[in-house]
Fold this sequence. Notes:
This protein has 11 helices and no strands. The protein has helices at residues 25-32, 36-41, 43-47, 54-57, 64-68, 70-74, 84-89, 92-100, 108-112, 135-149, 155-189. Helix 10 packs across helix 11 (155-189). The termini are far apart.
Amino acid sequence: VAKSAPSGGECMACHEPGSALPREQAECARFLAQTPAMQRQGCTACHAVENRCDTCHGAHRTERAVARDAKTCATCHMGPDHAQYEMWSTSRHGAVFSAKGLAEAPDCSTFHMPDGTHDVSQGISMDLAGKAYPAERRDRERARMVDVCARCHTRAFSARNLSDADAIQRESKALVDEAVAIVRDLDRLG
């Protein structure tokens, strides 16, 4: 079966624009080490969300409630390498949402699909490996997320907390990178 030429959009998920160079060696290496079945059921199934309605809406029904349910988001955003659902559900937002629902607290789509947009990357200011986007894009996306947070909080509070989250992400990544280096060194030493 002849495979159609890629349109280019899907390539940019892993490659620098106009290049065969991977965006982030570690991310692509993990994906390429998987079997085709693992790629289809794992990374590709989730990371094609903007191109596949059934990722969120389901293949058999298209109820908005299913797509909006945080548990649907959790089917991809849960576990040791994608712990966003656990972080949200144990946060103040998640705890209040669990007790009182959407009328009192935000869910995933409140932040990542404000006003019904299907641009789930809106407001994200870094790539999948935690590398900050170029300044212009980062500032634009940060302003979008501050706008979402400012619907309930002050702009200053929102900006400060998002900045703190960025710092925590960088600090956490540095700890993980240090641990990986130690394990690799120990492995090398036998």
